[in-house]
Amino acid sequence: MEQALIYVVPALGLVGLLAMAVKSAWVSKQQTGDANMVELSGYIAKGAMAFLKAEWKILGYFAVIAGILLAWSGTLVETSSPVIAISFVIGAFFSALAGYIGMKIATKANVRTTQAARTSLKQALKVSFTGGSVMGLGVAGLAVLGLGSLFIIFYQLYVVSVGAGVNGIEMEKALEVLAGFSLGAESIALFARVGGGIYTKAADVGADLVGKVEAGIPEDDVRNPATIADNVGDNVGDVAGMGADLFGSYVATILATMVLGREIVSLDNFGGIAPILLPMVLAGLGIIFSIMGMAFVTIKDDKGDVQKALNMGNWSSIIFTGIASFFIVRHMLPETLSIRGYEFTNMDVFYAIILGLVVGTLMSIITEYYTAMGKRPVLSIIKQSATGHATNIIGGLSVGMESTVLPILVLAGGIYGAYEFAGLYGVAIAAAGMMATTAMQLAIDAFGPIADNAGGIAEMSQLPEEVRGRTDILDAVGNTTAATGKGFAIASAALTSLALFAAFVGIAGIDAIDIYKADVLAGLFVGGMIPFIFSSLAIAAVGRAAMDMVNEVRRQFREIPGIMEYKAKPEYEKCVEISTKASIREMILPGAIALISPLIVGFAFGPEVLGGMLAGVTVSGVLMGMFQSNAGGAWDNAKKSFEKGVVINGETFYKKSEPHKASVTGDTVGDPFKDTSGPSMNILIKLMSIVALVIAPHISEKGHHTMADGSEMIKKEVKKEIKIIDGKKVETETVTITK
């Protein structure tokens, strides 16, 4: 029975990849439109692949150097192995492959969505969402297949082959080596997210400021030299970047739950590994339920509600997962379990999973409220645009700050509730429950940039107004789903980081992190500062790259006669080259901060100070991520609202009006917030936690302590436990004196 369940996990990953292949083939068979449309989509695909190749070249060097260092470090402690380097390289490769799959299908689906929009909104939604679902299923399938297969190998190699127990040092070693897979995935995700974010926003700002504001033409006008780079940016940032991001989250969440599950002594029918297997089984079944949910995403005609269709698919996959988790938990886990003295039942684990699903849903709903058109926050920014650029900026900043309140309260309630149900394992399994429907979440998210590109191709190809009208409907919904996707990602990152944090504390051999200690408090403040310097570097990089882009677009308008009269073609490749070089150059320093700072603090000051720094970076990073992503999303939809006309103090304003120009400024400020630094926060906090987990055996305080004369030190240990007696939780205390 144990062996069968272990092999079911990678099999479910293969099912996801098979479904991905079927959907990808269907998208490829759809019509591509006329020669002009195909040519424009070809420019976008070529630019996207050029960026990926340039990025992979740099990341290839990084992976080799990091792999060599990990292999060496694996020889230094008993609970690691040089094999961790292989695990790291596989994780990095799978993360890059996930981004490639998404990029490839997105650049195929965009022009096919445009062509589908010539017939109906229903068909355009079907093509764009199916393209997005290829990305979702690819990411989830690769994660479950990779993690499940490596766990089988390491479990057999380090535990079964030596006849060791599930809760011993051998399983700790197996999971430590497996952590290399997560480290590789998160490392690539950070560079992909930051690099892609710098790329897309440099192009977007150039297209907006010179094309819209100075030349008075749409950003997707074929005469705009930056328009191809802008559309490429949608793919490298919101498709490849987000794909690698959620791939990393998915893997890190499952891994953290597995590490904590090792500490549970479980009298189950699976050889005691049920708490370790449970998050992988949940993830695998989540793929199946996501495939089922995708069938609900459809509308009847052009008057259908696209947002409602996407919500139906999302909620159905969540409900299916919640129902199935009841039977999974009852079947796999014994009646009672305990972790670090905290006793709980298998039903408590089920309640924690449901709580995770509820938290994820609430985070999406709240984010949608703060960023969607027609809601109070966006309307308040529109109203403040009437009095100029400065008041628009003030309005957007205040909305972003306000938008952190409800999500943080929901997160705090979720963390507290999950801990009450099942201790630290409850917090981790809640995150695993939230991430179970990642395939569906990512399908909805990737649908957005595909629809955005489709609208751009329609504009550049000068298709009839009704076609652009249909793509605009998809684009407006996609803008909201992009914001809710980022809200989901930051929520999952917060819970994942807490679970990784708990796993780090256990492996590092520390009982608590005492902020009364000066060095720990200093670490807390340094950690709180890191998201700010990280954001500063990312935003400044966008600013520098955007200046280069603006100068290039101005040069082309000035030096190439006939562009504005459609008599000459702009040099699109020059703008693509500027964004590519800038993003590759500028992504290195922010990435280095995330990777190196935990190493310096951990080895110089020890695990407790590192724990303080992780606490600081987690709290600060979650708040910064929410603030920036939501402010940027609200600014963007405030600008888009002017396309249909907005009423301010009884007067209707449209595009090219003074309030609209103010909204363009706000959107330009918000661009690097929502697409570069904001969404990078969740990878930053996860990556630093993963690095800490990997180095934990090297800085661990475990082991015998001796006195100066060589005799063993007497140690008094007070252990507090919470037990369930007559259905109530009772705290007991045990004092142990050891040499």
From TrEMBL:
An example Gene Ontology CC term for this record: plasma membrane
PANTHER family the UniProt entry points to: K(+)-INSENSITIVE PYROPHOSPHATE-ENERGIZED PROTON PUMP
HAMAP family: PPase_energized_pump
Entry's EC annotation: 7.2.3.1
Catalytic activities: Na(+)(in) + diphosphate + H2O = Na(+)(out) + 2 phosphate + H(+)
UniProt KW keywords: Cell membrane, Ion transport, Magnesium, Membrane, Potassium, Sodium, Sodium transport, Translocase, Transmembrane, Transmembrane helix, Transport
Annotated site residue numbers, Determinant of potassium dependence: A482
Statement: the UniProt record of this protein carries the keyword Transmembrane helix: yes
Transmembrane region(s): 6-27, 58-77, 83-103, 124-157, 276-297, 309-329, 349-372, 393-416, 422-444, 488-510, 522-546, 587-606, 612-635
Organism whose genome encodes this protein: Algoriphagus boseongensis
One Pfam family of this chain: H_PPase
Location within or outside the cell: Cell membrane; Endomembrane system
Family: Belongs to the H(+)-translocating pyrophosphatase (TC 3.A.10) family. K(+)-stimulated subfamily.
Membrane-protein topology: Multi-pass membrane protein
Regulation of its activity: Requires K(+) for maximal activity.
Domain of life: Bacteria
Role: Sodium pump that utilizes the energy of pyrophosphate hydrolysis as the driving force for Na(+) movement across the membrane.
The protein, known as: Putative K(+)-stimulated pyrophosphate-energized sodium pump
Oligomeric form and interacting partners: Homodimer.
Cofactor(s) recorded in Swiss-Prot or TrEMBL: Mg(2+)
Signal peptide from the UniProt entry: none
MF-aspect GO terms: diphosphate hydrolysis-driven proton transmembrane transporter activity; inorganic diphosphate phosphatase activity; magnesium ion binding; potassium ion binding
A biological-process GO annotation: sodium ion transport
